[in-house]
């Protein structure tokens, strides 16, 4: 039984790694049929698959197009498992508000972060791209978010992140809401300069930071 | 030594510079005469050695049907929607015609006016083929197509390349001495070096050959870590190569001893640094092997005028 469980979760991870949406969905269904908890299938199947994807990315074997197709496969599996996650009461381990800041429409990096964070089991509210700065704060307040995550690919729009961080403080949410930023022009130095709590250079790093933030918010 | 802001992706989009240069909302991007006057104004207030147009990287996409928000002095023009639903639809589409489509005629008119009115170096900026394709088709969908139906992606990129080549040639004919091709999306870092070689490099070579045949010079800017694509870029005919400040100029010089390099002044430093720090940075990139001083990437709209002027002045101090 244990072997069969490992086997199906391993195949689910490999389906994600090999960008196969149909196989990811069928492995997810198979896992449920074998009585595996949806949460375990997410953690040891989908999230494990995305970890393997990231390893290839770090080794320069996968690039952005591959990451996109892997995250498509991850979502195909997650769509099968999500209703069962709710039934298990496991949905919503922390709430993350995510978006690309105003003036910028480049959202591939943001979408990869969403895929990684969702595969880790957190609730993600994706505001999309070219998001008015106040919307990050309004939604974080209304939805009792633990984390606000912002992305931009352009130097011309990165200062918007600073405005969001200060609006969060002005709104009195500074103790409750952590902020993380990412995107090509920003850095750890820029994050500390604008008062953001963290910076992540890629989606895998972002999910690790967000998980810690959510746990800390407990 | 010369300091330039080529326009396009690396336009001098600082709000303070733009205001001082006579920015007029919308018409700065739509009217050739206003565009020319602001370009001349930028050179006058900063001391830069060129006049560069356009002030955005949305001209080609708009000419092929993309909706564009022209923004404000603080926000650069932005593509707000996609003109094509898929890479296949783009592949079946038509290249833009520079004399009629979108704001291409305005940019060409600006170059013509600048050419008639001033002896300064005129730089015309265009975007690279993958950057254009991913402004016309949702980028994720386009990258998926590159993996799943590469022939379709190639055909779509050919339509984009035809548009860029026609526009670049029209800018040369109007008097642009240099064309700068900026490719922030089709990079070795995003696509990997193998795909850069297959999808991007031959098309950059095609655009560059067309520009060189017009008697103008051509600079290519590629974002991200370009060390993995040096071998490929060395085969692409060009006058100079420009890259992000995350790549060390001296290391590039070692990889490409006979290359001519433009850049590589950090845009974070231009935004947040002091004129004294910028003076040191220009001396630094010069020492490490830069041939033409310019911002290493797109500059922030919050960049102070004094810092751009400091970059120009520091370059001039460096001698030839």
Properties at a glance:
heterodimer, A: 218 residues, alpha/beta, 5-stranded parallel β-sheet, B: 320 residues, 7-stranded parallel β-sheet, 9 strands, 12% strand
Q: Could you say which overall geometry of chain A the principal axes of the C-alpha atoms support?
A: globular
Strand content of chain B: 5-15%
The quaternary structure here is heterodimer
- Arithmetic mean pLDDT of chain B: 96
**Overall helicity of chain B:** 40-55%
The helical percent of chain A reads 55-70%
- Rounded mean pLDDT of chain A is 89
Number of helices of chain A: 9
Structural class, from secondary structure content of chain A?
alpha/beta
CA-based gyration radius of chain A: 17 Å
Order of strands, main sheet of chain B, comes to 1-4-5-6-7-8-9
What are the secondary-structure elements of chain B, in order, as H or E? Answer: HHHEHEEHHEHHHEHHEHEHEHHEH
- Spatial order of strands in the largest sheet of chain A: 2-1-3-4-5
**Total beta-strand segments of chain B:** 9
Summarize the structure.
The complex is a heterodimer of chains A (218) and B (320). With 218 residues, chain A is α/β, with parallel strands linked by helices.
